[in-house]
């Protein structure tokens, strides 16, 4: 056997071993963090969603490399007593599918979610968007304003960023073929080896909950399909944001932004101060904390969401707010 043939054989064995490891790890991860909700069939794709509670509808859209576990870890329980809370895995994320030929931009994801709203009879829900989910929420508000009652954006991505945080640099692969190759070979083993420092950085300066990998679904982001989808999301988002930002001043529904001043993932000044200039009525709150406020400070975030629900109810033709919200009492009060 020639040296070249031996080298190719070794390379094939290594690649095959990495693919086999990644596939096996994905199966184990899915046993550890199984689906939490049910599936909605839309245009040949499956959207994983949790629909719980009763009352005015609140929709939750997670961020990059996330899934509904970012909300169901604690936040959903605080709201489902007074609201119908619907949490989605975005297309391609968590247990939702996205075919390779489907666009990954936030406006395309917004269109898919609006179809889900209509299928579920969600009338002008309050939309909670976290991080990249904030960009998707804004795309829904811009392209389908009749489908939105209010926006409650938590650490949202609102404007393009020059460079992603180091945690996500490995996702910056423009070639779809190379992106898929990396996702099915190196990404899963490397993510599993580096998950400790990576998760700490995403949560910094706050500490991640001990059970976030399982109860919060953190492990799901390390599956090959989710790595590929997250990389596609990150590459596609800037083009949509460039076209969206000049239109923000046209938004008329109540909009609020909540940010942690210690956020390591996004700069609250860049992402929020420009929004205040475009939307003078913006409800903006900065608090001590990091990027993962829905997980680390769910009661604070629930308070913020309820405030925005009250702003929606106060508009002409708005829904009546839950009586407990109007009275200013209840288990969501920050003490």
State the main characteristics.
335 residues, alpha/beta, Rossmann fold, eight-stranded mixed sheet, 13% strand, disordered C terminus
What does this structure look like?
The chain is built from twelve helices and eight strands. The chain is an alpha/beta fold. The protein has an eight-stranded mixed sheet with strand order 1-2-4-3-5-6-7-8, sandwiched between helices. Helix 4 crosses helix 5 and helix 6 packs across helix 8. The C terminus is likely disordered.
Short structural summary:
The protein has helices at residues 3-32, 69-72, 75-79, 106-119, 132-143, 176-193, 195-203, 224-244, 268-278, 293-296, 298-314, 323-327, and strands at 38-42, 45-52, 57-61, 84-88, 126-130, 150-154, 255-260, 283-287. It has 335 residues and is an alpha/beta fold.
Helix residue percentage:
40-55%
CATH architecture: 3-Layer(aba) Sandwich
Largest sheet: 8 strands, mixed
**What is the number of helices?**
12
Describe the secondary structure blueprint for this structure.
Blueprint (H helix, E strand, L loop, with lengths): L2 H30 L5 E5 L2 E8 L4 E5 L7 H4 L2 H5 L4 E5 L17 H14 L6 E5 L1 H12 L6 E5 L21 H18 L1 H9 L20 H21 L10 E6 L7 H11 L4 E5 L5 H4 L1 H17 L8 H5 L8
Parallel strand pairs: 3-4, 3-5, 5-6, 6-7, 7-8
Antiparallel strand pairs: 1-2, 2-4
Helix pairs in contact: 1-6, 4-5, 6-8
